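User: Now give one protein:

AI:
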Amino acid sequence: MEVETIENVHPVLHPVFPLLLAPQVIRKIRGEPFSDALGHLKLWCQFFNVLSDSIIKWFKDDVEIAEIKRSAGDESQVALAIVQASSRDCGVYGCTIKNEYGSDTTDYLLSSDILAEFFLRDDSKVGEEIEMTPLLFTKGLVDPGYWGNKFFGRIMMEELQIGKGCVHKKSRAKVIYGLDPIFESGSTCIVKVRNQIVYGTKEENCLAEINLETTKQECKIHNTVREYCKIFAAEARVIDKFGFALEVIPLYLIYRPANTIPYATMEADLKGEFLKYCTMDNAGRLIAQTTSEVGHKCCTFQHWIYQWTNGNLLITQLEGVDTKITNVKIATKSKGYQSLTDEGSPKILEQFVIQHQCNYYCGLLGLRAMTTMDSLQPSKVKTSRSPMLARRVGLTDSSSPQLLKKGSSSPPTAKNVNSSPKVDKKTDKYGENNTATNHKKWSSPNLSE
C-alpha cells in the first residue's frame, strides 16, 4: 500500500495540501515613525511561505491604495510610507498577499490616539536645505528634456497639509535664500510629495529610490504638458478673437537631504480662488467645468492635444487659478507613449471622444469634430515622432490643428462640421467662412526655457 506523502498527494484533491502551500502572515502590520522626526510614518508587515510569484496589495478602509509584485522566495518585509501623517490618514489599513496557492491578510487600526503617541510635534519652525533642479526643453518636444543646473537654497515650512487630497501631501513653504530668480527670497511656494508609497525593505534605500522615480516622472508629465501648452498658446495668440491664453506653470524637482522621503516637487504658490477645470472622479468619469471662459479653453486644450497626438494623449485633469494651470494628469492610449505612462487607458480616451462637445474656441482653432476623428486618423501612428519635429520638417501628415486648418490634410467637409456657430456668422459674399484665412502666417515659436 502506497504511503500518502506531500510529494504524491494531488494539491486539489487533498484538503490539507493547499494550506501548506499558501502564503501566511508571520508579522502583522506594525506602525513606527521614521528616524528623521519629520512626521513620516511607516506601516510594515511580513509574509512567509511565498512559494510562487505573488501580488501584495495595501488597503485603507477597504479601498485599494497600492500594489506591488513579490517574486517567489522573497519573504522580506513589505512597507507603506505615509508622508507627514495626520488625522486624515487615520483608518483601518490592510495588507493582503495572494498567489496561485492561496492568500492571507493582516489589518491595523491607525487612530488619532495611536498617531499622537508616535509624534510629539515641535511647533518651532526650522528651515531645511534643499537642492532644486528644473527640467528643460531647449528644443521643444523634439527631445525628452534634460535636468538643468541645480539651485542650492533654504526653505521653511509655514503651513503643513494644505488642501483636501491624500494622494499628495501639499505644504506651503517660505523661501529663505538661494532660489533666485525663480523664487525670490521671502516668497511662498508649494511643496508636494506623493503619499502612501509602497516598498519592500529588502534593499537599502529602496524607499528613496521609489520616491525619486515617482517624483521625476511627475515632473516629466507636468512639464511635457507645459511644452504642449506653449504651442497651443502660440497658435491661439495669432487669432485675435481667442483672447487670453492658458499657461501651465513649471514644476521643479527638489531634494531634501535631511528627509527620509527626500524628493518632492516645488511650484509657485498661486494666489486666488483655486478651481478644478477638468478632472476625473473615482469611477473614471471625465468631468469638465464649462461655466467660465477658462473652463471652455481648458476643454479646447484637451481637444487640441488629443488631435495633435493623433488620439494618443489626453489631459484628464487641469486645475489652477484663472489662466495659471497646475495639478496636471494625463492618460495615454497605449503603454509607454512618449515614456509618460506605465499602462495604456484606451477606454478613457474613448469616453472623451463620446463626451466632448466642441465649443466656440474649438471652432476658432479649426479642430475636427470628435465624430470624424477616427476616420481621419492614419492607420499607423509613429509615437516616437515628436509633434514639434513633424512641424519643423514640414510633414504633411502632421496632426497639428494649425496645419490642418490650412488645408494640407483636412477633408473638404471638415470646415463646415467643426466651425463654431459664432464663427459662421462672418462670411464673405460667397457664403464661405474667412476666419481661418485671415490669420497671419504662423511660424514655430522658440520654446527654449
Summary: The radius of gyration is 26 Å.
